[in-house]
Amino acid sequence: MKIKVYDKDAKNIKSVNFNIVDNGVNHDLITQYIRIYQLNQRQGTVKVKTRSEVRGGGRKPWKQKGTGRARAGTIRSPLWRGGGITHGPVPKEWNLSLNKKTKKKIFADSIILKINEDKLMSFVGFESLENPSTKITNKFLEQMNLKNNRILIIHDKSDVLFKSFRNIKGVRVKSIDDLSAYDILSADYVLIDSQAVSLVEQRIR
Fold it and tell me: How confident is the model over 174-193, as pLDDT tens digits?
């Protein structure tokens, strides 16, 4: 499969082969992955106290008979204000998992999906930057007509690229080590630094 390569002036200078085979995108698997990924973001740390955990209420508030009032054994009853909560939430582990082979398939499918939509490109020319420059990278995205989109920048642990793109609205910057299929799927456009293309290909093999 081929992807377009742009220079820092946003000119399409060539197309290169991306070493991936399109055996068909499994949309059902991608849907399942997104559901599991989002579910795994849930912390499950919410907690309320039951009547046995609320402080106080060790003494019977009044005697059982003769007062004319309803029977009460503790002021921490769920029926009372300040009492315990019945059937309230408790800490729970929500995490689900997928095996490595499935994750690899989903990662490859997310790449293929973006290539087929012509929304995955590579760029060159920023390796000459000695210092971070948001002005230059912002101008690059404007010339690419990608502003006001969700953009994913993939780089090879380049501190200069990271600092140049990170402050631009709508842009997420990820190194190869931190990259997930969800990052790719949730972006409108994916731009890969030319020096990182081979590393992305290695993730698929």
Answer: 999 999 999 999 999 999 99
Token couple for 6: 């742009």
C-alpha span between 25 and 113 (Å, rounded): 7
Does residue 175 contact residue 199 with C-beta atoms inside 8 Å?
no
CB 141 within 8 A of CB 8: no
d(CA 111, CA 18): 10
Q: What is the largest CA-CA distance in the chain?
A: 94
The angle formed by the CA atoms of residues 84, 77 and 86, to the nearest 5 degrees, is 45
36 burial class (0-12, 13-18, 19+ CB within 10 angstroms)?
middle
Give me the amino acid identity at 181.
A
The verdict on domain 2-39+98-204 having CATH code 3.40.50.970 is no
Given a cut of 90, whether residue 71 has pLDDT beyond it is yes
Q: Where are the domains of the chain?
A: 2-39+98-204, 43-93
